[in-house]
Amino acid sequence: MQALNLARYALAVLLLTLLGPPSQAQVSVRDDRGVVHRFAAPPQRIVSLLPSITESVCALGACARLVGVDRYSNAPAQVDALPKLGGLDDAQVERIVALKPDVVLAGTAARVSDRLESLGLTVVLLESKTHADVQRSLGLIATLLGTPSEGDRVWEGIQRDLAMAASRVPPALRGQRVYFEVASAPYAAGMASFIGQTLVRLGLGNVVPAELGPFPKLNPEFVVRSRPDIVMAVQREVQTMPGRPGWQGLAALQQGRSCGFEPARYEVLIRPGPRMGEAALLIADCLAKLPPAPAR
After folding, report:
1. Is residue 16 part of a domain?
2. What is the per-residue pLDDT across 122-165, written as a single tens digit (0 to 9) for each?
3. Domain of residue 131, CATH code
4. Which residue in 22, 68, 161, 263 has its CB near the most CB atoms, within 10 A?
5. What are the Cα distances from residue 253, in Å, to 184, 225, 230, 274?
6. In a domain, 215, yes or no
7. What is the pTM of this model?
8. Residues 166 and 276 reside in one and the same domain
């Protein structure tokens, strides 16, 4: 019997030698441009070139694998100590290469991706315009990290916060039409954006229809003509809106039916990542403090 056990042990060792390590260690993902990336093992050295991606990596429990981030990544606090590698249009290629990352994670709009790939780096590109994009990105990054179930955990947490936020919105505000400004040109968050989808989850409408795209640049007169019931933007822009030609007549501004967010909180609202549920709660908290909607 002992000889039989020894023979079985020897056979197992031989098979392990021939077949190599378990296949579970290998990782394969398809990024949002359709490129399939294969890794012999989950990447241990990661560069993130988008704040929402940085937050996603950390929310998935892998902050320690980050070796560098873009200049705008500032959450969670521990990423402040990492090398800052530029922004969307001026990524510091030489410094990124010098960090020897196993993978670079970036948005699909990153112009530096071709250059990095020509230098031998693996670049995974992610889209992040809608809730579905965020869910897919969380799942992809979690798979890349070798912890696929973590993506579901984080997404479920976002859904719980969205539901909680919806329950806090005063019933009288249901259906109110929002103008949500993302930049003062003005650019707005339309119904097709992740912000617009969050507003829908909260029972609100949007003055920017889906057919205009996720974040369209608007003619300022469009906003005046649309007569939003509620205005949302970073606080400094809300304060200066009455000085824009024609905007002083907007009832939402006259009646104080606006949400001006401090910059740190506003960042949470405009980042499509693991804090989308927190963003919804911030919006709900502001809505609860607004004056009652006038009768139509």
Report:
1. no
2. 999 999 999 999 999 999 999 999 999 999 999 999 999 999 99
3. 3.40.50.1980
4. 68
5. 16, 14, 8, 31
6. yes
7. 0.90
8. yes
